[in-house]
Design goal:
Number of strands: 5
Order of helices and strands: HHHHEHHEEHHEEH
Number of helices: 9
Strand order of the largest sheet: 1-3-2
Number of domains: 2
Strand content: 5-15%
Largest sheet: 3 strands, antiparallel
Radius of gyration: 25 Å
């Protein structure tokens, strides 16, 4: 007689299924993507073939919700990516290794001094294409952090998405102005171009809104 299959022990490790995602998928969506796939697999494996057929609408609804995210969320993510590309293309950026080489006495650790400056709140960085970059404007001619940056970043406080900081510095700000052409009216100035105007920067920072564009 054929032997009945043995039941797996509770302590047995779970199987892991590697599922490739389309190129260009936003990493921020991966946690929700993983949860949805796990829910779908649990439904299929635990219910049995007949039950899965009977609950096809539930499974289809789960996958449809995964493939078609909420319109508002999708629009926000598209706008964010467009803004990031625009800022990255219009600014000068430095890597930690570049900053290391530009120092009078470069450390053998190529992440220094950038990582130390960042840890102490003297500069900030952004991530783009899987790499870390520092905007050129937060350094002086000798590639040392501008003193005002520490105060501005402290006023920002903890910001999970540092592209919001980069956006605030990049775009013209109505709270920072200078005379317009031929003395006609005033025009807004980007904070990155007014880093010698500490008081104006702090006032403008206090008025900032929670959007990517100032």
């Amino acid at each position: 007689m054929p032997r009945a299959p043995q039941t797996a022990k509770a302590s047995s490790p779970a199987f892991v299924l590697d599922v490739p995602v389309p190129e260009g998928t936003d990493p921020a969506l991966l946690p929700s993507l993983r949860r949805s796939i796990e829910q779908a697999l649990k439904l299929m494996v635990s219910s049995g073939e007949v039950a899965v057929i009977k609950r096809a609408d539930e499974l289809a609804g789960l996958l449809t919700g995964l493939i078609k995210p909420e319109v508002g969320l999708l629009e926000e993510r598209v706008h964010r990516l467009q803004t990031i590309r625009e800022i990255f293309n219009e600014e000068e950026w430095l890597t930690a290794e570049m900053l290391n080489r530009l120092q009078p006495e470069p450390s053998s650790n190529k992440s220094l001094p950038a990582s130390d400056w960042k840890r102490r709140g003297r500069i900030f960085s952004v991530a783009f294409g899987g790499k870390e970059y520092f905007p050129r404007y937060e350094f002086d001619a000798a590639y040392q952090p501008l003193p005002v940056m520490r105060e501005l970043l402290a006023t920002f406080g903890t910001v999970a998405d540092t592209w919001k900081i980069a956006s605030w510095f990049h775009y013209p700000n109505g709270w920072i102005a200078e005379p317009g052409p031929e003395g006609k009216g005033v025009k807004p100035v980007a904070p990155k171009d007014a880093l010698d105007r500490r008081d104006d920067l702090l006032k403008a920072l206090a008025k900032r809104k929670g959007s990517y564009v100032a």
